[in-house]
From TrEMBL:
<dbReference type="InterPro" id="IPR000172">
    <property type="entry name" value="GMC_OxRdtase_N"/>
</dbReference>
<protein>
    <submittedName>
        <fullName>GMC family oxidoreductase</fullName>
    </submittedName>
</protein>
<dbReference type="Pfam" id="PF05199">
    <property type="entry name" value="GMC_oxred_C"/>
</dbReference>
<comment type="similarity">
    <text>Belongs to the GMC oxidoreductase family.</text>
</comment>
<dbReference type="InterPro" id="IPR051473">
    <property type="entry name" value="P2Ox-like"/>
</dbReference>
<dbReference type="Pfam" id="PF00732">
    <property type="entry name" value="GMC_oxred_N"/>
</dbReference>
<dbReference type="Pfam" id="PF13450">
    <property type="entry name" value="NAD_binding_8"/>
</dbReference>
<dbReference type="GO" id="GO:0050660">
    <property type="term" value="F:flavin adenine dinucleotide binding"/>
</dbReference>
<dbReference type="InterPro" id="IPR007867">
    <property type="entry name" value="GMC_OxRtase_C"/>
</dbReference>
<dbReference type="GO" id="GO:0016614">
    <property type="term" value="F:oxidoreductase activity, acting on CH-OH group of donors"/>
</dbReference>
<dbReference type="InterPro" id="IPR036188">
    <property type="entry name" value="FAD/NAD-bd_sf"/>
</dbReference>
<feature type="domain" description="Glucose-methanol-choline oxidoreductase C-terminal">
    <location>
        <begin position="493"/>
        <end position="633"/>
    </location>
</feature>
<keyword id="KW-0560">Oxidoreductase</keyword>
<feature type="domain" description="Glucose-methanol-choline oxidoreductase N-terminal">
    <location>
        <begin position="292"/>
        <end position="377"/>
    </location>
</feature>
<keyword id="KW-0274">FAD</keyword>
<keyword id="KW-0285">Flavoprotein</keyword>
Amino acid sequence: MTADRYAHNRVRYHAVIVGGGIYGSLVAKRLSENGWKVLILEAGTGSVATWEGYSAAVDDYRAALHKSPNSPYLPNPAAPSPDNTDPSGYFVQQLDGPLYASDYLRTLGGTTLHWEGVVPRMHEGDFLTQTRYGVGKNWPLKVHDKDPSALSPTTLAMLHKYYSEAEFELGVAGDAKALGKSGVMVPKYTYPMKNIPQSYLDRKIAEVLPEKIGYGPHGTASVEPNMVPAPQARNSSPNPDYRKGEGFRPVGAIGIPNYGERCQGNSSCIPICPVQAKYTPLRTQSQFKDDLVTVATRSVVSRVLFHDPLEKSRPRNGRATGVEYKVYEDPRSRAFTTHYAEADIVVLAAHAIENAKLLLASGVDNKHIGRNLMDHPLVYAKALMPDTRGVGGNIGPHRGPPATSFLDGFRDGAWRVGFSPFRAAVSNWGWGGMADAFSHEVRALVDEGYLPHVDEKPKAAKHLSGRALRRKLAGHLPRQFQMELLLEQPANENNTVTISPDFRDNLGNFRPVIKYAFGSDSDYVVDGARHAVAVARELFTRLGAKEYGSKVAPVRKPGDEAVIARFEDGGFHYDIVGARHGAGTHIMGLSADDSVVDEFQRSHNHPNLYAVGCGSMPAIGTSNPTLTGAAMALRSADQIHSDLMDLHNTLSVTLFEKAGQ
């Protein structure tokens, strides 16, 4: 890999890829393995792409007073990243209404630097929500000849093939047999690594799970809950049975490859794993073929070109000719130089919002661009175990990844006709999850001497510090128990990303203008959230835990996470926040009449323009979307390889025929 900031003008590549995150990295790796010359243009810096730079980011996170997903990574005004504690810092959106409440990261490695690393596959029903449940949109995949509510055998085989390849590239630890019980598509499969061990709390919950749980309005649905190990892109013990005994070798840290070959339970996966046991695209980039992949950082693509940048003439065939990009040296400066890169294929592999912004800035004529913006609505249900001051009350939080198990069984079923399904993760991080959660508790004890929503307010405030503060936290933190309830949000065309000449960043590029709400799907999502909270409440009761939360509607203060919506249930007020799972904006479909790209993520309007990633997904179910996005990126890479073969074979034949004349 050549870390070259400048791709010389007029140099032609087989493919130019916009974005050095997971999807761009996987496409580049696959294409270079087939001998194609690739350029990656990354808007951000490459500051964490070395051992020294990554270690500095770890130190920055530890020193940060305000802990949020972006806090280890230096702010970059030239390629700004949104922050969910400042919802209008980069995004343009109305602060007095529902907010798009998720962030992402614009730097080499992308948002997968601070992701959780959980990688479940989607259910079959997630691809056919409109046909099965009359909700959302279907994926444009071939269905069964005799049953349009089921995927065809060839489609199922294709999905398994690319899921398996993505799990190899990411290095996934999991238990396929356990997941198969909950209806996920993992037929006769072995993951590369054995699952991350389930936590003490996971096992305690499994002990009290009933055979059936009443679910939905008045408990009318009867669901068999399963406590299953969460598949994770995180180094574990290699599985000797993988690929019929071939085994798997974990990939370690950048610069020190024998470091980080096992998860060490540091409990800071979001936003940074200090030993690099969690997958990041830096691993994939370390495997690039040096002579075939060029990575140019600090290179912000401003538009896709459909003409020669010097002649300004648009070709009749509608093919993309390359991209225009702006190179900056100092992120704090507004100075930049403009460059052009030419390629046979152009691949947009940035975040869903950035891809949509770029398609709009490039003048691609498709009315669906920027529509159907989605996220996973997320609700936290909190409880405290009994204060036994012994083993019974201490459930051992803050040891290991955010979650090692799912409470499965509620992700797919007939109830999806009426309300959103959910996936429950058992949090290993106590009441963490929201930005700066633990600092809020410490500040409350220091400033007021008690924990609001937990303790009775004392008649006279007594500020806690020193030994008294430590004693209070020691009796409180180990008993924290939280369920993270992740819900489905159907695609809605009224949730949009647009651009306006009135809103630009320091380099003159467009800022995303966001319009986002549950809208007509509000009852569907909120009712699903109420039913999910009811399931969590039953578990709390069975464990002898007491639910806690706000009994008055919270007032958002500067620095708090953005909130999409709120609801009240059982005397508590719940916030619905974003899970940072941005999707939609350039969804796939059958034609330009209903979508932006086809099933290979190829533009309906321009045959050599691809937009890959979660932005292409017309439905996301309740699975963290990164694995599915990775699988589809690999499928796109294979199609791009086929396109390039056709193009260059045609060119060879044409040149041969001309030479013979």
